[in-house]
Design goal:
Rossmann fold, binds flavin mononucleotide, alpha/beta, six-stranded parallel β-sheet
Length: about 170
């Protein structure tokens, strides 16, 4: 399968998402789309070098029109996964804003019927997460974040709680 994988600027589920891309890379053609914040957060969490080993599009090296998003219109991918997806990127996709690499790719994917899978960091009322130094803490996502996720599901976007679930649902798209 040809899979586009978006990594946004989230620490929550970042390391687990990178692990899944490393596994999928062995069997599938995969390209990673990395937001500018994703690049910064990956550096903080110590996984930027691992991401650098993937075929990669960096938002920080793109123009404002994100020409790489055009590849979704050209049928180059069977699936677009965004994991981890920040509340920022989720909100933009839900509201139809496409002024960032990942929101623009998602918009083009949805408009050309490429299935979109999102693993949001703010997916339930209480989220337990780990900071870059390993400290565990709780977050309480806002109602607006949970509303966006509900609306995306209604639109047909596949919303998962953990990147490991992506591997389980892939056969749906074969
Ligand atoms: C270390 C660090 C970790 C972060 N983790 C998260 C997160 O788990 N979820 C989230 O929604 N935002 C998180 N953020 C904030 C986002 O990076 C910020 O909202 C950014 O503008 C998102 O841009 P993007 O959606 O284009 O990647 C984090 C920021 C930092 C510095």
């Amino acid at each position: 399968m040809k899979i586009a994988w978006g990594i946004s600027g989230a620490g929550h589920l970042l390391v687990e998402s990178v692990e899944v891309v490393e596994r999928l890379k062995k069997k599938h053609e995969i390209k990673v789309f990395l937001s500018s914040a994703g690049e910064e957060v990956a550096r903080i969490y110590g996984v930027l070098e691992r991401i650098g080993d993937f075929p990669l599009v960096r938002e920080s090296r793109q123009g404002h029109a994100f020409p790489s998003c055009g590849s979704f219109n050209l049928g180059k991918y069977d699936l677009f996964v965004i994991s981890p997806a920040t509340s920022n990127t989720v909100a933009k996709i839900r509201l139809g804003i496409s002024d960032s690499l990942l929101s623009c790719c998602a918009s083009q994917a949805l408009k050309t019927k490429v299935p979109l899978v999102v693993v949001p960091t703010d997916s339930k009322p209480v989220v337990e997460t780990k900071g870059p130094n390993g400290d565990v803490f709780k977050l309480y996502p806002r109602k607006v974040d949970l509303d966006h996720i509900r609306a995306l599901k209604e639109e047909g976007v596949i919303v998962l709680e953990h990147p490991y679930e992506v591997e389980k649902i892939l056969k749906r798209f074969l």
